[in-house]
Amino acid sequence: MRKFLSKMIGLRKGERMNAVIAEIKVYSPKYGDLLRNRDVIDILEVYERCRCAGISYITEKNYFRGDFEIFRRICRNSELPVLRKDFIVTKEEIEKTAEAEGSAVLLIARILKENTAEFVDYSIDHGLESIVEVHSIGDIDYALESKTPIIGINNRDIAILEKDDGSVKVTEKLAPLINSHATKISESGIQTKRDVEMALEYVDAILVGTAFMRAENIEKKVMEFVGGENA
């Protein structure tokens, strides 16, 4: 049975917890190797113990060193909804995500432009939730013209492969312009508890990868961000 990310975000908020989508990020173009010989399933289990709202994994191979078979393994082992992040440009990749029993797929408005709505519909037809990602004012209309259940604001710039540190100020700027009932997420560049608090003033959930993967004590860091009874 497929798990829905938007519903889990609502559930965590109802439990008075911060809705956190935790990313198992194996490599960063800026910081290098983030996995550091750890097993992805061990990290998955930490995220589940901390009652995150969902799991994210980047399958892109060239810059982020992702592996679709690892994504498939995470989907098979996760009790939480799993988001596939990649530079999706073909419908076959949506089919592949659904076949692997993923829960959601990232669709980047800057890349898909006027095809965004069509790709959202195709995702829905295959039982997937879409996250339409925006980074600039110009991206927002593509998201609003679609039926996407989730809109993500990327605080980092994918055009430079996220080599910038990003800033929650991007979320502060864009979120008020998104006049939609869709669930809203602030993605990336969230490093501190203050960043979490600032982002959640504008959105329903946050997506965090690098800060968790670089933490000395990953479980402690995740629990700090999730808050609620875990804090």
Characterization of the model:
With 231 residues, the protein is α/β, with parallel strands linked by helices. It has one domain: Aldolase class I (TIM Barrel). It has 11 helices and 10 strands. The protein has helices at residues 5-14, 40-49, 68-77, 91-99, 109-112, 116-125, 137-144, 169-174, 193-199, 210-213, 218-226, and strands spanning 20-24, 27-28, 32-33, 54-58, 82-85, 104-108, 129-134, 150-154, 183-187, 205-208. It has an 8-stranded parallel beta barrel with strand order 1-4-5-6-7-8-9-10, surrounded by 7 helices. The longest helix has 10 residues, at 5-14. It is globular, with a radius of gyration of 16 Å.
Brief summary of the model shown:
The protein is built from 11 helices and 10 strands. The chain is of the alpha/beta class and 231 residues long.
User: How does the helix and strand content classify structurally?
Assistant: alpha/beta
Per CATH, the architecture is Alpha-Beta Barrel
CATH topology: TIM Barrel
Q: Over the alpha carbons, how many angstroms does the gyration radius reach?
A: 16 Å
Low-confidence segments, ≥5 residues, pLDDT <50? none
Major sheet characteristics: 8 strands, parallel, barrel
Mean pLDDT across all amino acids:
94
The figure for the number of domains is 1
CATH fourth-tier homologous superfamily: Aldolase class I
The coarse overall form would be globular
Helix percent band: 25-40%
Q: Beta-sheet strand percentage?
A: 15-25%
Order of helices and strands: HEEEHEHEHEHHEHEHEHEHH
CATH class: Alpha Beta
Distance between the termini: 31 Å
